[in-house]
Amino acid sequence: xxxxxxxxxxxxxxxxxxxxxxxxxxxxxxxxxxxxxxxxxxxxxxxxxxxxxxxxxxxxxxxxxxxxxxxxxxxxxxxxxxxxxxxxxxxxxxxxxxxxxxxxxxxxxxxxxxxxxxxxxxxxxxxxxxxxxxxxxxxxxxxxxxxxxxxxxxxxxxxxxxxxxxxxxxxxxxxxxxxxxxxxxxxxxxxxxxxxxxxxxxxxxxxxxxxxxxxxxxxxxxxxxxxxxxxxxxxxxxxxxxxxxxxxxxxxxxxxxxxxxxxxxxxxxxxxxxxxxxxxxxxxxxxxxxxxxxxxxxxxxxxxxxxxxxxxxxxxxxxxxxxxxxxxxxxxxxxxxxxxxxxxxxxxxxxxxxxxxxxx
Amino acid sequence: xxxxxxxxxxxxxxxxxxxxxxxxxxxxxxxxxxxxxxxxxxxxxxxxxxxxxxxxxxxxxxxxxxxxxxxxxxxxxxxxxxxxxxxxxxxxxxxxxxxxxxxxxxxxxxxxxxxxxxxxxxxxxxxxxxxxxxxxxxxxxxxxxxxxxxxxxxxxxxxxxxxxxxxxxxxxxxxxxxxxxxxxxxxxxxxxxxxxxxxxx
Lengths: 360, 201
Hints:
The complex is a heterodimer. Chain A contains 14 helices and no strands. Chain A starts with a helix and ends in a 12-residue tail after the last helix. Chain A is mainly alpha-helical. Chain B has 9 helices and no strands. Classes of the chains: A mainly alpha, B mainly alpha. Chain A binds chain B through residues 94, 124-126, 129-130, 132-133, 136-137, 139-140, 143-144, 147, 155, 158-159, 162-163, 165-166, 169, 186, 322-323, 326, and chain B through 28, 32, 35, 51-52, 55-56, 58-59, 62-64, 67-68, 70-71, 74-75, 131-134, 176, 178.
């Protein structure tokens, strides 16, 4: 017993230290993210079910809760028990590594996202660049999976995905240049803090075109409908993960949904004030939790934005490949460039976020 | 101490990955080893507090250039035997290049030592409030604004040249004008005609 007590106190000491503190939060975020992904798959099927006048999954209960809540957990058990088939003449090593490569950026990016006024794992100064470089690495999982599987369909999916990601990354980067101009920092904590002051002082108001461009590019970057040509069931069966089965497929699924949550969190951070509350400055609310910035607001914003992903999927038909390229290069990039020019004018005449005294 | 351990670890990985680039039998493995090289060099740059360069290396080379590289390498049906034919014949050229690079690096380091320029920060880390990105931006847009713009112009010319080289219009290709496709209205395509019902015989 004495040893246990000693161990516990040593653990507490470790948790007090800076490294232990970050490690604790990393574990908390990872576990929370995995559970969120599980529940998000259920939520997606439910929401799309309701939109199509169906019930969605409604059989598996867990702890006697609402019907369907046990579905994702049942799915995980099923996928874990299935055989992972490795195709003949495939590249065995890369075939197994690809799902993990797809997973890493989706989780690693959370390191710099400010979750609440107090909690950020890393307050890196180049946080925005870090995010850009990580989200651009997500494509490797898809390309390697498509190539290693030794299948024409998978390879076609990988090629489409590579071209699409390279195209939309540019629009995404330019949209973030606009955010950078409005907040004057690459540190995500500072980006959130400069948006203080309620609904209209968040970036979305002055950077609305960039918000639209960023979110569309985000949907394209996660390979979600209507940009899911990398999968394209009706044309190339299931695209890059056609040969994957069992838990290897589940890892791709996990990566896709974690990326969805990530893009929503980033949009919330860059354009909707992160953990800032919308009711800030209203009389009488300042003392209650409604007037205070907190994780609650961040979670709410992420939830709403993730819902948009599901809504898009239920609403829009898939883009044709050439139209995707046209939208990325000929519509989104020019919009960002024009708006960066507009921002220069706003900055020159000190309008909007550039009216703040510390900016000059 | 920890920094030195990390440096040697990353340096070892970097050298192994670089060897992998030139010895791998499969060109896709070569490209992936090169990705590994870039990532470990970025890690080493992070150790000397050059975070902007490190992140941009990953962003530009790993995120964009190598994706296109892989794209091409995977698409090409490369004859490996033919590719490896010249390996020994042109080895002297490779050695010569390597030698030149080594001489240059040693020369720079030696010149800095002789001129009394401190390489690195002499081991003392910058304070936590120091931002490498901010400093770099400040210097680039004020002191070196003119060279910076020149470099941008050169890149722009390169882009225009690359596009001009690959733009070939063949005769008889059927392009789809998406702008016109989107602008189509039902009224232009379908004509609804009112007809009197025919008489029954």
